[in-house]
Amino acid sequence: MGDFFWADAPKQTAFPVAAPGYSFIFAAAFSTLIFALIGNEWLACIGMLATFFICYFFRDPDRVTPSAIAAIVSPADGRVVQASIVRENPFIPGECYKIGIFMSVFNVHVNRIPFSGTIKNITYQPGRFHPADKDVASMQNEFNAVVLETEHNQRICFVQIAGLIARRIICGIREGDTVIRGQRFGMICFGSRVDVYLPAKTRINIAIGDKVTAGSSILGVLE
């Protein structure tokens, strides 16, 4: 595909849905059917709308990923709410560039690997549920932090953070796994945030307020 490649094989369906959504969709559809059978048209309409919204929320579109060797892609769809140097952080040593991406309930919530490498460490920590677009959410909310090491021994950390509504973080990779840029690795249900910690010398390609797309938007380039 020239300047792009498929990190995951395209799905053979017109409207792909992430697997974690199946139980939610079934529950909403089943409730809608029950309301219709007992003749409660009002609740049946609400149930139908809820079913459609849940299908929409758990959509999992195929994405092409830039082929540029040193490009770091966004792990999440959403809006950039933080982009700055931090002197220290609990995930990787030394000064880092931190990028915070806020996902509203209208964004795709499937997360993707930002760069190819080996998963060195995964840390899950329970916590609070502050609004995910606030900086306080980074350290105080429930999170799942993944540290990746590139083939040149550079470390990148991407952190799935629960939000005010989100109560379920899903991560489908394990320590020791070899992963490639753009591949799916998990999701966060119903509104959330993903923080990315990059080497301080990374050439950044985004700014606060930018909208980014998981697996496709370039956050920066490793130097």
A few lines on this structure:
With 223 residues, the protein is α+β, with helices and mostly antiparallel strands.
Notes on the protein architecture:
The strands form 4 sheets. An 8-stranded antiparallel beta sheet has the order 11-7-8-9-13-5-4-15. A 3-stranded antiparallel beta sheet has the order 3-16-14, with no helix packed on it. It is an alpha+beta fold. It has 2 domains: 19-57; 69-221, Glucose Permease (Domain IIA) (Distorted Sandwich), CATH 2.70.70.10. Helices cover 17% and strands 35% of the residues. The chain is globular, with a radius of gyration of 18 Å. α1 (22-37) runs antiparallel to α2. β8 and β9 (155-162) form a beta hairpin. The two termini are 25 Å apart.
Keywords:
223 residues; alpha+beta; 16 strands; Glucose Permease (Domain IIA)
